[in-house]
Specification:
single chain; MetI-like fold; about 300 residues; mainly alpha; about 80% helix
Length: about 300
């Protein structure tokens, strides 16, 4: 009995030592990353209350004047409105494509592994490469997209001259970049589902759509909700897609692009204020994502 107790005490002591070692090894990295993240964040918040430019950042404390200037700037609200459209359109399109492909690729089809790798490529291609390729494909007369449309009798679409077409092109590009993440996440979710309910619904005579809507959809809804919020955060925070695809077109300028342009080329204070407001929006979205994550964990 004493021997077992001594062995248990030695095991607990070793566990505490291992835990302490893990903490000691992690602390330097945590501190380094924390300083690297905290310093620019705090500095940006301070700049939002000051007058200044990039060459002379701190020219005096002006309080909330920068926030007032930003909120009365129509370009800010135009960027905010585009961010909403860009996020909703990108999330809906990427989720629809990802879910459709996930339902297809969980089945036993020929060359399934090769097809999966091919669909993941847009996720791993560097943004500068992917957006440059898409921009060339969407050129006016000689672009591959318009050549295909002309072959089907559709008139040429001027993606980067028509403001509405520019918004559509940017949403398509975002969906092209994002659907692989949706695909991988939904495939993992679908493959982990209990097949008993699906088999029971099939025995009861349910067709394919009824099985999906009544059995599969309720089970993937918690993960889908997390993916929607997470992709919305990434869309609001996406600088590369609209900037690189449209060459910083005013028709496709989201809050991130607006904040950067405002801070670098016009007024560092108003640009910082715009970035802080965007940060608040992202913070609210992150809060809802954590709530959905907790709810999904409770359901599972």
């Amino acid at each position: 009995m004493a021997k077992a107790k001594g062995s248990r005490s030695a095991s607990d002591l070793q566990t505490r030592r291992d835990r302490l070692l893990s903490i000691n090894l992690a602390v330097p990295s945590i501190l380094l990353l924390g300083i690297a993240q905290a310093y620019p964040l705090i500095q940006g918040i301070l700049y939002s209350f000051q007058k200044g430019k990039t060459t002379n950042p701190s020219q005096g404390w002006i309080g909330l004047k920068n926030y007032s200037l930003v909120l009365h700037n129509p370009d800010f609200w135009s960027a905010a409105w585009f961010s909403v459209i860009f996020a909703i359109g990108g999330v809906l399109l990427s989720y629809g494509i990802g879910l459709g492909l996930a339902l297809l690729l969980i089945k036993d089809i020929p060359m399934r592994g090769f097809i999966r790798v091919g669909f993941i490529l847009p996720w791993v291609v560097p943004p500068i490469v992917g957006m440059t390729a898409l921009r060339w494909m969407m050129q006016d007369e000689r672009g591959a997209v318009n050549q295909v449309l002309n072959w089907f009798g559709v008139d040429t679409i001027f993606f980067f001259n028509d403001p509405k077409a520019t918004v559509v092109a940017t949403i398509i590009a975002k969906a092209w970049r994002s659907f692989p993440f949706m695909l991988v996440s939904l495939m993992a979710t679908l493959q982990s589902l209990d097949t008993v309910l699906d088999e029971a619904a099939e025995i009861d005579g349910a067709n394919r759509w009824q099985k999906f809507w009544s059995v599969t959809w309720p089970q993937i809804l918690p993960m889908s909700s997390i993916l929607w919020v997470l992709m919305t955060i990434w869309s609001v925070n996406d600088y590369e897609t609209p900037y690189l695809l449209t060459n910083n077109s005013p028709s496709a300028r989201n809050l991130m692009v607006f904040s950067f342009d405002e801070a670098i080329y016009r007024n560092l204070g108003t640009g910082s204020a715009s970035a802080v407001l965007t940060l608040i929006v992202l913070g609210v979205l992150s809060y809802f994502m954590l709530k959905l994550q907790k709810r999904a964990d409770d359901l599972s």
